[in-house]
Structure formats: structure tokens, C-alpha cells
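Propose amino acids for all 401 sites.
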């Protein structure tokens, strides 16, 4: 388009038309209509520390902003997307206040109530997760791979003494929680026996529990989750989203573990053949929502389930980038959002860096941008580096030391 003004005017009128068409779709009561809301236009929430009995005071960046998940960011815009049911898919960008008014106007229709629920989920303050506050700042989850064959650090912490040292180092480097994994799930990896997983995990579990750390266990197996819960773990992180082992969700409910439901399709052996999506962002969203239903039905407390779109699991490079670009849409699930980008192959593909250990700068960039979209937990190999990057990011957000 040659001139800015006519282009903007045309966009505004097409936005108005799209918003009107969404409203009509909702009023028609189309039961198959699926709705999504991606917040954007982020700016930091200013927090003045409380003194004595005074609670900290928070100030939004300006009028028309809403606080994201009760956390450190506010947003003033939202992209609404819809698909399914009788009509064509669509999308519209609106100020969040206009989206909330639209939802209000159609509240008597089921679609309107679903839209309102989605928008409320963006704002709803997240509970403490495994005891960790997720409202003040992003949390760093340190990866401790007690494996001989993980894609970037296999063997580093495999021997019991090395596993214990890796736990101590991650905590000394400032990790908020530890993710102990005994099975590599890199593309092509084969399944291992739960007894072997448990045997590998124990030294790290014991060291981490003795140190009083918040411990997550990265496993797809209910028996391993059960064992880890008895040895002090607080979180089950399941890359299969509790679909691999039919007993896993029940174990989480019964033990009271918190949970991370990650998105993947198939198994590490098959996942890179399962990258056919209609719309990767919306399909991953729907499939994660199915995992949440599974956990809800098993009796797991909703506030104790974090979601993760699963970067590198049954995704191409472009699909990983689409998910990271649109990451904030996942706040619409109403749960804490965890993201794992550390040293992954998409960084290698973008930069040409073949050695996973040399992908730290790219990993930091991806982690910071995820936190800039409100991700509450970042799962990383390079703890000290990530902590430093986040501390600087936070200070800039505050505008003072
Ligand atoms: N929730 C969650 N869990 C994960 C994720 C992730 O992105 N999110 N990535 C992994 C891959 O990284 P790792 O270094 O553990 O590699 P490995 O599978 O080869 O051990 C393993 N586990
Ligand atoms: N388990 C995994 C390990 C690595 C990757 C990746 O590099 O994309 C994906 C999955």
C-alpha cells in the first residue's frame, strides 16, 4: 500500500468487520466455535516495595492495561482468534478493554462465556507452584541430566558423585528449582526401564532433598514419579503430558505432586514424523487443553499444573519459532507457563552453531524473550548465565537497581 493513512484506515475498518463477524458467530450459538486470545503490548508493572505492615503497591503502565497472570507484565492489546464450527476461521486485534466489552455483550451465549473465561484466564493471578511464588519474577529451573546420552550434556552428571556435584552447583548458581532427568527424550532416543531410571535418579534426589531444593522429576513413568515423591520431589515434569503411562496422572493426584504438562506427539522415536499441523499454535493449544482435562479428571489440583508447548518435540524449526513468537497465547490456559529452549537444535539451525554447548547466547535470547511474554519458569542448562540475564532484564524493567 502506498500511503500509511489509508492503509491504517482500511485495517481499522476490516478489524471492525472482523469483530462484528465474531460477535455474530457467537450469537448464532455455534457449539463448535473454538476461541483463543493472545495478549500483547507488554510493559512492566511497577512495584513499590512495602515497608512495615504496608503491602507492596503496584502501578499499571497506563490506562487500558491489564495485569498478566498477576505477574510482572501488563498488556493492553489482545488478538482474538477463532476456528471450528460452521463458518470460516478468523482473527482480530483489539484493545483488551474492547475485547472485554465484546465478551460482556454476548455473555448470554455459551461462546460469549467461553470468550470471557479465556480473557479472565489471562489476568487470573497464578497460585504458588510447588511453593514457589510466580508473580514477582520468572523462576529458573536447572536441568540435571543423570544420563549417559542427553543431547547436550550426556555423561556430565551420570556418575553418582557427578550428579550430586551438579545439584550443588545448580543451587549455588541460583536455580529456583531443579529438574532431575534420567531418560533422554532427544529425537530418536529409545525408552528405558523404570527401575534403571530410579537407580540413576536416587543420588541426585537425595542430594537435592538434603539441600532443601524444590525438586522436579523429568519422567514419563508413574512408578518413577511415585518413587521420587517419596524421596522429596515436589513436581512431576512429563514430556508426554501424562499420556505415555496411563497410571501417571493418578500417581500425581494421589501423591499431591505438582505437574508440568508438556506438549508432544508420539514418542521420542516417532515425534519428528508427527509434525503435521493445521495451525501449529492453535493445535498445540488444543492438545495441551486436552492434557489439562485428563489431569483434572484424574483429580489433580488445577492450580498445580503448569503447561509447556514443548519446543523441539514433534516440531520443525519454523513451528518452534511460531510457538515462541506467539507464546503468550498459552496464558489463555490459565496455568503457569514453562518453556524449555536451552541449547536446542532450532538455535543451531538458525545460527549454524553445531555444538549444543556453544548455543548459550541464543538460549539466553530465547529465554529472555519468553519471560518478556510472561513465561513464569524457564528450564535451562546454563543457570548462572540465565540468572544474570534475567536479573539485568528485571532491573531494566524496574528502571533502577
Ligand atoms: N517441560 C519440559 N521438559 C523437557 C524439555 C522441555 O522443553 N520442557 N526439554 C527436554 C530436552 O532437554 P534435555 O537437555 O533434558 O535433553 P535430553 O532429552 O537429551 O536429556 C527434556 N524435558
Ligand atoms: N529431548 C529433546 C532434546 C533436544 C531437542 C532439540 O534439540 O530440539 C528436542 C528434544
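Proposal:
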Amino acid at each position: 500500500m502506498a500511503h500509511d493513512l489509508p492503509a491504517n484506515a482500511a485495517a481499522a475498518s476490516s478489524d471492525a468487520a472482523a469483530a462484528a463477524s465474531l460477535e455474530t458467530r457467537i450469537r448464532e450459538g455455534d457449539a463448535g466455535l473454538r476461541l483463543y486470545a493472545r495478549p500483547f503490548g507488554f510493559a512492566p508493572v511497577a512495584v513499590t516495595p512495602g515497608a512495615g505492615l504496608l503491602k507492596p503497591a503496584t502501578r499499571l503502565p497506563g490506562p487500558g492495561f491489564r495485569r498478566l497472570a498477576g505477574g510482572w507484565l501488563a498488556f493492553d492489546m489482545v488478538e482474538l482468534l477463532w476456528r471450528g464450527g460452521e463458518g470460516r476461521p478468523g482473527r482480530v486485534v483489539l484493545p483488551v478493554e474492547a475485547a472485554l466489552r465484546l465478551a460482556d455483550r454476548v455473555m448470554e451465549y455459551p461462546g460469549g462465556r467461553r470468550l470471557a473465561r479465556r480473557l479472565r484466564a489471562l489476568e487470573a493471578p497464578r497460585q504458588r507452584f510447588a511453593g514457589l511464588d510466580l508473580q514477582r519474577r520468572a523462576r529458573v529451573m536447572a536441568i540435571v541430566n543423570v544420563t549417559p546420552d542427553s543431547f547436550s550434556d550426556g555423561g556430565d552428571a551420570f556418575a553418582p558423585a557427578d550428579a550430586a556435584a551438579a545439584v550443588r552447583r545448580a543451587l549455588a548458581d541460583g536455580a529456583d528449582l531443579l529438574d532431575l532427568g534420567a531418560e533422554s527424550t532427544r529425537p530418536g532416543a529409545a525408552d528405558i526401564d523404570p527401575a534403571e531410571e530410579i537407580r540413576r535418579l536416587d543420588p541426585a534426589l537425595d542430594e537435592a532433598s538434603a539441600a532443601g531444593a524444590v525438586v522436579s522429576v523429568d519422567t514419563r513413568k508413574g512408578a518413577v514419579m511415585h518413587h521420587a515423591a517419596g524421596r522429596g520431589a515436589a513436581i512431576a515434569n512429563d514430556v508426554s503430558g501424562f499420556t505415555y503411562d496411563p497410571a501417571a496422572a493418578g500417581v500425581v493426584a494421589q501423591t499431591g505432586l505438582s505437574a508440568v504438562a508438556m506438549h508432544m506427539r508420539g514418542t521420542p522415536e516417532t515425534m519428528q514424523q508427527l509434525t503435521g499441523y493445521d495451525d501449529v499454535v492453535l493445535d498445540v493449544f488444543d492438545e495441551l487443553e486436552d492434557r489439562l482435562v485428563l489431569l483434572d479428571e484424574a483429580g489433580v489440583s488445577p492450580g498445580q499444573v503448569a503447561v509447556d508447548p514443548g519446543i523441539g518435540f514433534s516440531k520443525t524449526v519454523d513451528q518452534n519459532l511460531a510457538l515462541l513468537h506467539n507464546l503468550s497465547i498459552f496464558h489463555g490456559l490459565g496455568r503457569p507457563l514453562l518453556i524449555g529452549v536451552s541449547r536446542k537444535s532450532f538455535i543451531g539451525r538458525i545460527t549454524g552453531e553445531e555444538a549444543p554447548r556453544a548455543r548459550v547466547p541464543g538460549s539466553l535470547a530465547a529465554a529472555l524473550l519468553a519471560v518478556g511474554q510472561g513465561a513464569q519458569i524457564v528450564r535451562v542448562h546454563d543457570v548462572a548465565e540465565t540468572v544474570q540475564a534475567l536479573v539485568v532484564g528485571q532491573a531494566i524493567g524496574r528502571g533502577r537497581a
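The radius of gyration is 22 Å. The first strand starts at residue 34 and ends at 44.
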